[in-house]
Amino acid sequence: MYLLRRVFKVKPGTARKTMAIITQIGKLYEEAGQRTHSRVYMSGGVVPGPANTMYMDWTEETLRSPYR
pLDDT (tens digit, 9 = 90+) per residue, 32-46? Predict the structure, then answer.
């Protein structure tokens, strides 16, 4: 099993709006059957990691082309 992660750098002050958009993108991929359930979270502030950074994680059994 593979853990896949997308990393997004966002502008300061846009974290909530960006998180909603990234979450919606993950749901659309899930509804289309392209991905399993994704988890979206951010670092910075009280969470360790670089500030203004969003992450989207999901798992896959095999690595496949994103153009399938």
Answer: 888 899 999 998 777
Residues in the chain, how many? 68
Coarse DSSP helix, strand, coil percentages of the chain, rounded to the nearest 5 percent: 25, 35, 40
Q: What is the pLDDT of residue 27?
A: 95
49 Ramachandran zone, left/alpha/beta (phi>0; psi -120 to 50): left
Whole-angstrom Cα Rg for the chain: 13
- Span 19-29, average pLDDT: 94
Show the CA angle centred on residue 23, arms to residues 19 and 27, nearest 5°. Answer: 170
Q: Which residues of 23-41 are buried (b: 16+ CB within 10 A; e: fewer)?
A: eeebeebeeeeebeebebe
